[in-house]
């Protein structure tokens, strides 16, 4: 059994013991016409050139597109479509676990971080690695915290300006205990 994705070397025979621990599994093409067509298009394959025993390995699906059955087997969710290349849109890593940006609501943070809207990537999915996903979540929180601090600072500046305008040129004596003038 060999994965039919171009340039993928996964076969039942060469999947090492360490990779089996990572649960590299193989999936046959769906029989449902529209889903089968989506798989073929995503992989750049033609149905007429595909053998009946053609399979795709789990490395071409996101973890979000898979689940574990009660008996411990990994399955692909209905509607999941494999991809020939999966890469983080921020750091370009392809070895870490990848997450769909839409499923984790990271699109807005990405757009605010980069200044660019998300765009259709064709066959590529809009994914980020777990490390960049965490950084985007932190960015969103950090930005919100920074904006709250800026609002508070601007309020203080306005209060200071209005206090100075109500009593221009008057110096307010320092009445704090324990502070002595330097001579």
What does this structure look like?
This is Jg19637 protein. Helix content is 33%, strand content 10%. It is an alpha+beta fold and 183 residues long. It folds into 2 domains: 1-84, no CATH class; 86-153, His-Me finger endonuclease fold, CATH 3.40.1800.20. A two-stranded antiparallel ribbon has the order 1-2. It starts with 16 loop residues before the first helix and ends in a 17-residue tail after the last helix. The model has no long low-confidence stretch (mean pLDDT 81).
**3D shape:** elongated
Overall pLDDT metric: 81
Assign the structural class, choosing from mainly alpha, mainly beta, alpha/beta, alpha+beta, or little secondary structure. alpha+beta
Number of domains: 2
Beta-strand segment tally:
6
Taking strands numbered 1, 2, ... along the chain, how are they ordered across the largest sheet?
1-2
The percentage helix is 25-40%
**N-to-C order of helices and strands:** HEHEEEEHEH
Low-confidence stretches: none
Number of helices: 4
Residue fraction in strands:
5-15%
Over the alpha carbons, how many angstroms does the gyration radius reach? Answer: 28 Å
- Largest sheet geometry: 2 strands, antiparallel
Distance between the termini: 89 Å
Features of the shown structure:
183 residues; His-Me finger endonuclease fold; two-stranded antiparallel sheet; two-stranded antiparallel ribbon; 4 helices; 6 strands; zinc; zinc-finger; transcription regulation; Jg19637 protein; DNA-binding
